[in-house]
Amino acid sequence: MVQINTKKVLLNILIILIPSITITSSVYLVLNGKEDVKGVSVVQEKSTPYITNMISNVAYVGKEYIFVPRIVGGNTENLSVSIQEGPSWMAVDENGFVVGIPTIQDIGTYRVILTVSDGTLSSDLVDYVIVE
Question: How many CB atoms lie within 10 A of CB 55?
């Protein structure tokens, strides 16, 4: 006579069957995009782009300053970074990196406001940079 261990059967269901169903459902939703799935529609809402990392807070006289913003959200095809407020030596290059080389006349503390935009939505990152 065969004994069925109920705990093992339930454990196998939890470990194998449920994750398999979840993954299959997720793949189906992704592959079928915006189509209705049993009465549930997938709606892609617009999200505001924003910078997730903080500005490099120290810049050194005569050394190249580079800040690479990590951006999430927004329409990734139209993202742009701009400097709304900052020192005159600081600029945004063609890659969207904040760069510059401060001189001895630039020693001090500067408020920096970076704006990231996707053409429709935007957000600001406000921080400070000290030139030593």
Answer: 19
